[in-house]
Amino acid sequence: MYVKINSNTRITANRYAWVVEEKMPHPETGNVGWQETKNYTSLESLMKNYVELLVRQKVKGSKSLITEMNKINDAFLKAVEKQYATINKIRRAYELK
After folding, report:
1. For residue range 35-79, what is the model confidence (pLDDT) as tens digits?
2. Domain coordinates of the chain in residue numbers?
3. Nearest CA among 71, 72, 63 for reference residue 44
4. What span, in angstroms and rounded, lies between the C-alpha atoms of 91 and 51?
5. N or C: the chain end with fewer CB closer than 10 Å?
6. Are β-strands 9-13 and 18-25 bridged in parallel, bridged antiparallel, or unpaired?
7. Whether the Cβ atoms of residue 29 and residue 96 lie closer than 8 Å to each other
8. d(CA 35, CA 66)
9. 75: Cβ–Cβ under 8 A, 6 or more apart, which residues?
10. Nearest 5°: phi and psi at 2?
11. In whole angstroms, what is the distance from residue 72 CA to residue 89 CA?
12. Edge to edge, what strands does the sheet with 18-25 contain?
């Protein structure tokens, strides 16, 4: 799963971290692909620090910043809701409480 921020930036997750990836050429082959540029150990850290990253890189004005953050927040809420639903299904299947 990933959250598309723009055509060159996306957020993904692995077992250990939330990861910001950008499209860039591979150092050896020159092929353009997704490369990890930043990672965060918690969702809270990602949200806090990514705001600073957006401000420094490209987002100008509070309206644009709020729009970008709302997109990210909505995508993560959907992901968490799906994860919660899956956990509940497993819990019910094994009758765990």
Report:
1. 999 899 887 788 778 767 776 766 555 456 667 777 777 877 887
2. 2-93
3. 72
4. 36
5. C
6. antiparallel
7. no
8. 26
9. 3
10. -145, 160
11. 26
12. 2-6, 9-13, 18-25, 32-40
Q: Compute CA distances 48 → 7, 33, 41, whole Å.
A: 22, 26, 12
pLDDT attached to residue 35:
92
Instruction: For residue 39, give the nearest of 60, 4, 15 by alpha carbon.
Output: 15
Mapping DSSP onto H, E and C, the string for the chain reads: CEEEEECCEEEEECCCCEEEEEEEECCCCCCEEEEEEEEECCHHHHHHHHHHHHHHHCCCCHHHHHHHHHHHHHHHHHHHHHHHHHHHHHHHHCCCC
Quote the tokens at residue 62. Answer: 């509070």
